[in-house]
Write a structure and sequence with these properties.
Rgp1; Immunoglobulin-like; mainly beta; RAB6A-GEF complex partner protein 2; 3 domains; 3 helices
């Protein structure tokens, strides 16, 4: 019996534009009886093995209508009746939106009993690839598919899933190269030209974008007056970061009883692909922060962005945007101010009213969410980096 094992060494999350490596091992396993003695085994000859990357896109048929000029879906490919050719997307849901050229791992491989051989598959993930995304209307998923065929047998497929993150502006990494005139120069050291990898450049770009701190202050008001002043220290974040901001009620003219801040993403299907033009964007809530703030001068929020979330992106089919959704519960009438004790040694007791006439005020603040270091995202990934299949 032949056992095929495909393994992604190191991690299961990659950036678009990176090279991905997969180790594929073929083993002729010797079976043993219950008493431990080996059974009679034979040599096997494998005709060929190939590997290929493909991205599958599946959509909600009630919300999304794909254009007429598109590729065949995987279900249509499966009915073609060809069992010996290498069709990586065979049996998959949806349609293939991206696929690399198939790479041949070997031809005519003979494995004697107990023998094992390992082959390395390397491929470049296209820089214009869409990110891995599991939305309500659209889903993008990536797999490395390894196809193998024994003589006079149908082709067997083995798939290894992985996740793709996209950093905008990495199609040409040479624009991020540092000018030689600006580099520190040591006259006693021989200079060596070193090309930066896509991962190194991407991490530098993300660090530059998300570390720019510039406090943005927003006055939250309605027709009756001022509710609060909100301060956000930056507007660009990486997945895994914490969104920290402060709420100042010292200059408020409308009493705020409590407020909540929720991190939300908005999945927007392009107008050309909507089945119903009146369909509203789909909102996905994440972590939130609740605070009771009556008679409070200042408060703050701290909301984490999950590492499993998808950074903002846009394709010809769907786009994803991020924002903070605030809900302020405000009183319709002015409340008596809290009485302060005359001296610090004295204390005061305040009894809240049994009834408050309140209303809810909603406010949305757009933010930018970018990718992060793939190693961090791998630490919380549930994708298997090793898959085994028997021929």
């Amino acid at each position: 019996m032949i056992i095929v094992t495909a393994r992604l060494p190191g991690r299961s999350v990659f950036l678009a534009g990176e090279h991905i490596e997969c180790k594929v091992t073929f083993t002729n396993v010797i079976k043993h009886r219950r008493d431990g003695t080996p059974t009679k085994s034979k040599s096997y000859t494998l005709a060929w093995a190939s590997a290929q990357i493909h991205c599958q896109c599946s959509v909600s048929e009630s919300r999304v209508g794909l254009p007429k000029t598109r590729q065949l879906t995987s279900s249509e490919v499966s009915t073609s009746g060809n069992d010996t050719s290498f069709i990586p997307c065979k049996g998959e849901k949806g349609s293939t939106v991206l696929s690399t050229k198939p790479s041949i791992l070997f031809c005519d491989l003979v494995l004697v009993p107990g023998e094992s051989q390992t082959f390395t598959y390397q491929e470049l993930i296209p820089g214009d690839a869409p990110p891995t995304f599991r939305g309500n209307a659209v889903k993008y998923s990536y797999k490395i598919t390894v196809g193998t065929q024994k003589f006079n047998c149908p082709t067997k497929l083995l798939r290894v899933p992985f996740r793709v993150l996209v950093v905008p502006g990495l199609n040409d990494i040479t624009v991020y190269g540092e000018c030689d005139e600006l580099k520190p120069n040591n006259p006693f050291k021989r200079t060596q030209q070193k090309e930066s990898s896509v991962l190194e450049v991407a991490l530098e770009v993300l660090q530059t974008i998300t570390c720019r701190k510039a406090a943005h202050t927003y006055n939250i008001t309605n027709a009756r007056g001022k509710v609060a002043k909100f301060c956000l220290f930056k507007q660009a974040y990486k997945i895994g970061d914490d969104i920290v901001g402060t709420c100042d009620f010292t200059e408020a003219t409308i009493p705020c009883v409590q407020f909540s801040a929720t991190l939300q993403s908005e999945e927007i299907v392009t107008e050309e692909c909507r089945k119903k033009s009146k369909d509203t964007p789909m909102i996905i809530p994440y972590s939130n922060h609740d605070e009771v703030c009556l008679h409070t001068c200042k408060s703050h929020i701290s909301i984490p962005i999950p590492l499993t979330a998808t950074p903002g992106f846009s394709t010809d089919l769907v786009s994803l945007r991020w924002y903070l959704h605030f809900e302020f519960v405000i009183s319709k009438h002015c409340l008596e101010p809290l009485k302060q004790p005359e001296s610090p040694s004295e204390s005061a007791t305040w009894q809240g009213p049994s009834y408050l006439d309140v209303e809810t005020m909603v406010w949305d603040l757009p933010i930018k969410v970018y990718a992060t270091n793939p190693m961090y995202a791998t630490s919380v990934s549930l994708l298997k980096t090793e898959v085994t299949h028997a021929l």
